[in-house]
């Protein structure tokens, strides 16, 4: 029965979305970046698990619904302008990225002028996404 | 004389921008969120200091140009989809936010359904932005 007034303080963009950053609450690692609409943010707060808006699929996306790699929300933060959300989370299964890596930010810019994948794949994506919904 | 091929691997949005997250390289704190165009990212890599694209002012924004609070870039990362940049930085002056706080993400969602500014103002913004350009 909590008020939804706090949702009105978020500055939604012209598509009704805000960027959302997911950060490991313990280690500080930035794990992923996604988008939220009003309903996604409300559900995230209500359930205590990250729910995003998938721009490609145009639907709500309960992170981990297929992989089991849900994100337990420890804290929801908003920036000074009210137009970016930061979730401090516990990453279930230790894998946030669909490539099977811990973080989506595994490409490092190298001096020679390229990108290098510097973080290991923890689990083969083929093994992650064959998981049956329980 | 480094190649700019790596810039072509970034998936720029329809406005030619990518979201950029600035994270303290030592502590892992997420300090701010901004946008970059191709030139901003190229300059960031070249100078080793964060340069963003200001959407409101529609111009390049060398972070700290007024405040002195520049961001020394330790590492540039890109996510799995190539459409988000993560800068791991050293925050000169220890203040990233225009409100005089360390991080822009100082508003915490509280159980009662509101936002609470939980981090201290380190320096009065009036004292930050009167600084003369040297």
Automatic annotation (TrEMBL), chains A, B:
Organism of this sequence: Uliginosibacterium paludis
- NCBIfam families for this protein: PRK00051.1
Kindly state what the record says about how the cofactor is bound. Answer: Binds 1 zinc ion per subunit. Binds 1 Mg(2+) ion per subunit.
Assembly and interactions? Homodimer.
Q: Which UniProt keywords apply?
A: Amino-acid biosynthesis, Cytoplasm, Histidine biosynthesis, Hydrolase, Magnesium, Metal-binding, Zinc
Asked whether the UniProt record includes Amino-acid biosynthesis among its keywords, one would answer yes
Query: Pfam families given for it?
Result: PRA-CH
Pathway assigned to this chain's UniProt record? Amino-acid biosynthesis; L-histidine biosynthesis; L-histidine from 5-phospho-alpha-D-ribose 1-diphosphate: step 3/9
Cofactor(s) needed, names only, are: Zn(2+); Mg(2+)
Q: What is this protein called?
A: Phosphoribosyl-AMP cyclohydrolase
């Amino acid at each position: 029965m909590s008020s939804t007034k706090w949702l009105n303080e978020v500055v939604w963009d012209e598509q009704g979305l805000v960027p959302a950053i997911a950060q490991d609450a313990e280690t500080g690692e930035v794990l992923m970046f996604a988008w939220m609409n009003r309903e996604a943010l409300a559900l995230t707060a209500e359930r205590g698990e990250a729910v995003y808006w998938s721009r490609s699929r145009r639907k709500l996306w309960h992170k981990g619904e297929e992989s089991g790699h849900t994100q337990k929300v420890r804290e929801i933060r908003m920036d000074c302008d009210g137009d970016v959300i930061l979730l401090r989370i516990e990453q279930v299964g230790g894998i946030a990225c669909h490539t099977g890596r811990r973080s989506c930010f595994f490409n490092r810019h190298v001096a020679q002028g390229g990108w290098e994948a510097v973080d290991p794949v923890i689990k083969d994506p083929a093994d992650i996404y064959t998981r049956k919904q329980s």
